[in-house]
Structures are given as structure tokens and as C-alpha cells.
Predict the structure.
Amino acid sequence: MTSSAPLAQLDDLQARLAALRAGQTSPSAFAGEARSAQALLTALPPRFGQVLVSLLNGLEAGAAFDEASCSFDQGQLHQNLQDWLAAARQRLQALG
């Protein structure tokens, strides 16, 4: 059975992503929180962490530039992060 800590961190990241989409937090703040979710990342296979780092790097890089001049579509990155969270939840539930 999985610990409640990974699920709690997953729920927290879900709420923070909603805040990011609403413009209530910055991409760098979200990325910092995601990177510090060690219980969650440890509970998942290593590939999940690799994909998350890639998404977070794109999110931070995209935030450094004007949306029009950047190859990173913030809306698509937000959706990719949502997809990552959904996949992580499914994996944790399967382990549960």
C-alpha cells in the first residue's frame, strides 16, 4: 500500500497547477514545488521524474520569454503537466 505522503503531494501539485493556470502563482514557484515533491517522485518509476523535469524546464524557459516569441506554448505545457499528474495518480493507485 502506498503512503499518503505521495498522494498528498500529488493533490498539492494539482492545486498549484490550477493556481498557475489562473495566474495566481509563477511558473518558477510551481516548478520549485514540483521538484521538491520527493515523496511523490520517489514513489513513481524514474521515468516519471525525467518527464517532469523536462516539462518543468520548458515551463521555466517559456516564462522567460514573451509567449509570441517563445517556442514553448504555455497552454500546452499546462495541459502536459495535467496529463502527467493524471498518469502519476493512476500509477500510484495501481501501486496502492
